[in-house]
Design goal:
- This protein is an alpha/beta fold.
- The protein has a single domain, classed as Alpha-Beta Barrel (TIM Barrel).
- Strand 4 and strand 5 form a beta hairpin.
- Helix 8 runs parallel beside helix 9.
- The longest helix has 25 residues.
- It is globular.
- It starts with a helix and ends in a 12-residue tail after the last helix.
Length: 365
C-alpha cells in the first residue's frame, strides 16, 4: 500500500465524523436494542485468532488530530455491540488513537480516554465477547496534530512506544481474559525497523503482563500478499508463547481497500481472495506460527463481491486462521464496505459473514 491509501482512509474517516457526531449522541441510546435476549453460542473462543469477528470504527476517527469526543470520534455503545453479538460475533476489534490515550509522550494516560476504553471493555465483557484493541497509528505518533513522526525517530523514540505499552498493560493487567492487545495498526515504511520496535513493545508488556495474547502486525501495511517482501524474517521472541501475527488484505485492483473502480473495471475474479491471502498463510504454515487477518472487506453494491468475500473466508478457515471484517461503526454513513444495517435491513455482506459464525438470534427494535 502507498501513502495515498492513508490519506483516502483519513478522508473517509474524517467525513464520517464530521457528518454525524451530534446526531448520533442524541439518538444512539434507542437505535438498536437487545430486548429479546440472545441465544448465541455462550462460551468464549479458546483460540480467538481462529474466530471470525468484526471491526467497529469510532475511537480512531479523524486521524491525525486529538479532537473532541462526540465531534471527531466516538466509542461504540452497548446497543451496537449487542447487534453484532446477536448475529453470532464473539470477537470485536476496536482501535484507538495513541495521541488521544496519551496526549504527550512519556506522560500519564489521559483520564477521560482511559475511562472510555475501560467502559468499552466492560460492555464487551458484558456481551460475552473478546476485544482486540490497540493504536491505529501506522507506527507513528503526531507530537503536533497533523504531523505524524515514525517510531524510532528522534521525535518519537522507541522508548516512547515502550513507555506507552507499559502504561496500557499496567492499566489493564487485572483483566485476565476477553482482552487482546494489538501492538499497532498497519506499520509501513519503517526502513526495516519494525521488527525491533515490535520486540521492544512485547518485552515491555511482558514485564507487566505474562498472560495477555499479543497480536503483532507486519510491516508494509501488514499486506498479506506482500507479507514475505516485508516480513520474511519477522520472528518475535515471547517467553509466554502467546503471540499471533496479523495481516490485512483487500481485494480491489490496487489492494488498498478504496474500491474506486467497479468489479469489471478492476477485472476481478473470485480467486483473487485466495491468491492474495496465500503468501501470508504459507508463511505461517512454514514457520509454525499463529496468525489472523484483522482487516478485509468488500463493497455491498455488487453480489459478485460477496463471492470474493466467501472465498476469502473459506481460504482462511481451511488454514485455521480467522479474522475481523472491516467494518461496522456508528458514523459510516454510505461507506460501501459498511456492515451496518440500513433502514432496518442488514447489509448484504452480513449474509456471508454470518455463515461463518455460530448460530445466534436476537430481536431488534
Amino acid at each position: 500500500m502507498t501513502a495515498s491509501f492513508v490519506f483516502r482512509r483519513r478522508e473517509i474517516l474524517a467525513g464520517a465524523a464530521a457528518s454525524a457526531g451530534a446526531a448520533f449522541l442524541s439518538a444512539s441510546a434507542g437505535a438498536l436494542q437487545n430486548t429479546g435476549g440472545s441465544t448465541c453460542q455462550a462460551g468464549l473462543p479458546s483460540e480467538p485468532w481462529k474466530e471470525f469477528g468484526i471491526n467497529i470504527v469510532g475511537p480512531a476517527l479523524s486521524q491525525g488530530v486529538r479532537g473532541t469526543y462526540g465531534k471527531d470520534f466516538i466509542y461504540p455503545d452497548d446497543s451496537m455491540l449487542a447487534y453484532y453479538r446477536g448475529k453470532g460475533f464473539r470477537v470485536v476489534r476496536v482501535t484507538f488513537l495513541w495521541e488521544r490515550l496519551q496526549p504527550k509522550l512519556f506522560a500519564e494516560l489521559d483520564p477521560q480516554e482511559s475511562e472510555r476504553l475501560q467502559s468499552l471493555i466492560r460492555i464487551v465483557r458484558d456481551q460475552n465477547m473478546v476485544l482486540i484493541t490497540g493504536p491505529h497509528n501506522y507506527a507513528r505518533y503526531a507530537v503536533s496534530d497533523g504531523v505524524p513522526e515514525l517510531i524510532g525517530s528522534q521525535a518519537v523514540p522507541t522508548s516512547a512506544f515502550v513507555d506507552f505499552w507499559i502504561r496500557v498493560a499496567s492499566l489493564f493487567a487485572p483483566l485476565k481474559d476477553q482482552l487482546i492487545f494489538t501492538l499497532m495498526n498497519e506499520p509501513h515504511d519503517t526502513g526495516g525497523t519494525w521488527a525491533r520496535i515490535a520486540q521492544a513493545a512485547v518485552d515491555a508488556i511482558r514485564s507487566v503482563d505474562k498472560e495477555r495474547w499479543l497480536y503483532v502486525p507486519g510491516d508494509g501495511w501488514s499486506s498479506a500478499r506482500s507479507w514475505r517482501e516485508f516480513n520474511e524474517h519477522l520472528a518475535i521472541k515471547d517467553s509466554s508463547d502467546r503471540v499471533v501475527y496479523v495481516a490485512h488484505q483487500y481485494f480491489d485492483g490496487s489492494g488498498k481497500g478504496i474500491y474506486e473502480r467497479s468489479y469489471d473495471d478492476d477485472r476481478i475474479r473470485p480467486e483473487i481472495a485466495a491468491n492474495r491471502l496465500k503468501p501470508f498463510l504459507a508463511w505461517l504454515k512454514r514457520r509454525g506460527f499463529r496468525g489472523t487477518v484483522t482487516e478485509y472487506g468488500v463493497p455491498n453494491n455488487d453480489p459478485r463481491w460477496l463471492v470474493v468475500l466467501a472465498n476469502a473466508l473459506d481460504t482462511l478457515k481451511q488454514s485455521e486462521v480467522g479474522g475481523t471484517y472491516w467494518a461496522g461503526g456508528p458514523w459510516w454513513g454510505d461507506y460501501p464496505l459498511s456492515s451496518e444495517p440500513r433502514a432496518g435491513q442488514d447489509a448484504p455482506v452480513m449474509s456471508v459473514l454470518t455463515r461463518y459464525l455460530g448460530s445466534c438470534s436476537v430481536s431488534r427494535t
